[in-house]
Input
Amino acid sequence: MASAADKSGAGTANGSGELDALIIGAGFSGLYQLHCLRDKLGLRAKVLETADGVGGTWYWNRYPGARCDSESHSYCYGFSEMLAKEWEFSERYPQQPEILRYLNFVADRLDLKKDIRFKTKVVKAQYDAAVNRWHVTTEAGERLTTKFLITAVGCLSTANVPKIPGLESFKGQWYHTGLWPHEGVDFRGKRVAQIGTGSTGIQAVPVIAETAQHLTVFQRTANYSVPAHNAPLTPEFKKYVKDNFKEIRRIMNGTPNGHPFVIEDRSVFDVSDEERERIYEAAWAKGGLQFRAGFRDILLNKKANDTAAEFLKNKIRKAVKDPKTAEILANIDHPYAAKRPPIDSFYFEAFNRDNVSLVDVRSDPIEAITPEGILLRSGKVHEADIIVFATGFDAMTGAFLRMDIRGRDGLTLAKAWEAGPRNYLGLQVAGFPNMFTITGPGSPSVLCNMPVPIEQHVEWITACIDHMRKNGVDTIETTPEAVDGWVAHVNEAANATLLPEAHHSWYLGANVPGKPRVFMPYAGGMARYRQICDDVAAKGYEGFVMT
Ligand code: N01
Output
């Protein structure tokens, strides 16, 4: 792309003038976006990344037990058969260090690191209509100028540490799972308090319990979980993955959630009670997120969901020996999978250990943190040496809103999203020309196996920029009408499912006090979404104005 702006004197990542594209974040999305723009379109593109290495989520989330819930053969890039053939995962579900090694392997193999500026945090981005450019400011005060601004900031990258009074007075150490120390944490001989029982907390409990003197788990919302049945991959399975690369991708691209399994086209009520039980038992024995795939209506029909929910609650009652503890764990108030369903390695069994106990903070909420530990409303104090906050993220919007992003006429993104995120296709916000948001709110993102929606967005953005170049278009900007239509469709898609019934879900922003309650991801399914995006492009980028 012609870039007259070399003369502008604006700084770039390599100091050589203006950029065609600046990408924020070097996780799965940022790496692939850089590869596409630099190596396929020949653009001058750079990535700015806060961390001192690639990985995004997998750079920061180093907590005990951190492992992906997607199966390893699907939790990787699909755009290159060469990469897929050269890399081999070792377990059914890859551990955090292995995923980080994989992303470093990709970055090195594609020679991406030379165009990534590490330890460079973006704090501000301002659109300048006079020159149709974005000015991006880093924490160090450096200013860069770019035509396209592409956010690859991740959906779950802003740690949510609840504002519990007294935390600053705590005498011990505390950590958030999403900002875990690289050197690890030694739990030996320590009394550990873990707050939170989402996917992260459920992974961490059995591992922390192995070394802690005592682990007290503070549960606010009881959660379902299905065993992962993690295991090393056999040579036969590794061969199957390499030999069937295209077929596995075909299945993943055709399903609503981007996983390598097909959802059965039968209703819970098409089969007898005995047959249903047999199907659930088989799915339980197989383990993992595939448990949802036995019937098409588990997330659509509350009565259908109740059958799965009851099956899973009974498994908890069987796994946990102390009936009182079992009842607190099984006292789940939302439909199965209406919150992101965790999978685990001996989570419920951990409560049978002498050194693990459970506190129900729904009935006796956390009042404060004291120098000694955690104070409940009843007055009871649970003493602790270490507090682990497995309390999740300011999901989907947090990573955007902690930057000062200003579009046309100084409109801030915070203002544009004050009632919740509003955009078109999850890809662009009205008033923010030439800015694309990879896996932004309003796109399938977190409801899927993430590499699939990431690749689809990156490829769509790349094709869009290529189209602009070939047609002499300088600016792409969505319209308020297109945004209104898309936001209505996102709501409609969510309301056709049971997802909004989990009132405390981070999908709704409910975990962050004061955050607008809006169902953020697109629940219409990945395959349908891909078709919508392809149709938009085929119709000359309908819903966008190109000038
Ligand atoms: O966070 P969460 P997470 N007092 O928000 C509790 C992905 N992920 O890090 O439900 C007491 O789900 C909160 O309680 P409640 C995955 O998409 C992926 O576990 O709000 N408790 C809840 O129990 C996942 O969904 C992998 O009532 C408080 C917990 O903390 C997403 O990340 C692995 C509290 C937070 O659960 C987030 O999961 C792990 C308070 N003040 C995670 N505040 C993969 O394998 C919060 N809680 C890819």
Q: What stands out?
A: The first strand starts at residue 19 and ends at 24. Residues 68-69, 156, 162, 195-201, 203, 218, 220-221, 340, 361, 366, 390-393, 446, 504, 506, 511 surround 3-acetylpyridine adenine dinucleotide (CB under 6 Å). The chain has 16 helices and 20 strands.
